[in-house]
Amino acid sequence: MNTAVATPPHATVTDKATDERHLFGPVIDFMGLGGLSVLVLIALCLVGNPEAFQPKLAVFFLVVADIVNHPHFAHSYQIFYRDFRRKIGPATAMTLRWRYWVAGIIAPIAIVAFYAITLSIGDVTWIGYLLNVMFFLVGWHYVKQGYGMLSVDSVLKKKFFSESEKKLLLHNAYAGWAFSYVYANRVLSERTMFGISDYTFDIPEPVFWITLVIMVGFGVMTARMFGQRVRAGKGLPHTGVMAYLTSIYLWQIAIRFNPLFVIVIPAFHSLQYMMVVSRFQINVETENVSNGRGALLTRLCRNAPVAGLIQFYVIGACLGFLAFWALPGLVTGLTEGEASGFPVGWAFAMFWIFVNVHHYLLDNVMWRKGNPDVAKHLFAH
Fold first, then answer.
1. How far apart are alpha carbons 38 and 268 in whole angstroms?
2. Which residues contact 356 (CB under 8 A, 6 or more apart)?
3. Cα–Cα–Cα angle for 233, 239, 245, nearest 5°?
4. Gap between the Cα atoms of 221 and 227, Å rounded
5. Contact 155/379 with Cβ under 8 angstroms?
């Protein structure tokens, strides 16, 4: 989720007292879109000895990854490639159709071709370059998703931002991402994933201070804009604002100052994503039931849309396990001793990088403003 959305034709969940709309309800939305992460990160700050606590936390969130993180990547594939022939056909607007072609067909072929060249050369450094690209895109994806959550909540609450306000919000998000990326390159000389090194850039000190000043400047302007809206009686979509600020200042910047944050934040980013995906999929299943096209589990459970959502989750969990563990493990076993000069984890690195990078590209198409599927299914019923 990384962009603004169109005005919905129907409410999703309505609070009759305030006529406010929600994905699932005020408390669930607030906690799922970022509030729970705030509470957990505060608790982690109170931990007396982070190093002693880190191994146990890492094991726990490794399990969480199989329940939340990895399935959230799979869900983007489930949605993106569903009815794909229609999406790349003449019924879809030309610009959007081209985006589907690039993200869905051309991009994965290009990545696989890059891998083929890398394997033929036998130089692991080339995988490290793509690993650097992945880390670069992670920050972009996080802040764009936070901006997308704010956009969704503003539509649900009917507290719309003007075009100039949207530009400011987006520029502020990019400024936070830029500072986070520059800071990470400045304090880290090398990152390693599955034994493959990602060498960071040597950032000059003036660049660091420039990005810091820009981030602070946009932050001040954004806070001023929020204040002006409140004073003018326009109000703010508070849950969306919380999700937006959390994705920038906690998940992008505060993560650089506490090693425990690095372990837990991906799970909350994935949970935020799955909140929107769950509402989207429930609406899809509801429409399918009304048209007599419910999923197998839906039909077995007397046309309950939630049953279709459970089936969607189970398939996503299986796909996530295949992509992140089973397939790279199989490739590693089959090629053991044959990839001369490559670390033991080279296959895992390739699969993980592929899914991460491709996921960002898929999301940038699926959740765009102007994509009719968003307006139809995210806000229906």
1. 10
2. 73, 134, 137, 138
3. 95
4. 10
5. yes
Q: Rounded to whole angstroms, how far apart are CA atoms 288 and 279?
A: 14
Sign of CA dihedral 292, 293, 294, 295: positive
Instruction: Dihedral sign for Cα 353, 357, 360, 365, please.
Output: negative
Q: What is the DSSP letter of 23?
A: S
H or E segment to which residue 380 belongs? none
The reported pTM is 0.91
Query: For residue 330, what are its two tokens?
Result: 């199989």
Question: Domain ranges in the chain?
Answer: 13-378
Residue 293 structure tokens:
């096209």
Question: How far apart are the C-alpha atoms of 180 and 139, rounded to whole Å?
Answer: 8
The residues with which 190 forms a beta bridge, in sequence order, are: 199
Residuewise pLDDT in 10s, the chain (381 residues): 655 444 343 445 666 545 678 999 999 999 999 999 999 999 998 887 777 778 888 889 888 988 999 999 999 999 999 999 999 999 999 999 999 999 999 999 999 999 999 888 888 788 888 888 898 899 999 999 999 999 999 999 999 999 999 999 999 999 999 999 999 888 776 677 777 776 667 788 999 999 999 999 999 999 999 999 999 999 999 999 999 999 999 999 998 888 889 899 999 999 999 999 999 999 998 888 777 776 666 666 666 778 888 889 999 999 999 999 999 999 988 887 555 567 878 899 999 999 999 999 999 999 998 899 988 888 765
Residues 9 and 375: beta-carbon distance below 8 Å: yes
Q: What is the DSSP annotation of 98-141?
A: HHHHIIIIIHHHHHHHHHHHHHHHT-THHHHHHHHHHHHHHHHH
Please name the amino acid found at residue 287: E
- Residues ≥6 apart with Cβ < 8 Å to 178: 211, 214, 215
Tell which residue, 365, 77, 145, has the closest CA to residue 373: 365
346: closest CA among 126, 107, 138? Answer: 126
Q: How would you label 118-153 residue by residue, b for 16+ Cβ within 10 Å and e otherwise? A: bbeeeebebbbebbbebbbbbbbbbbbbbbbbbbbb
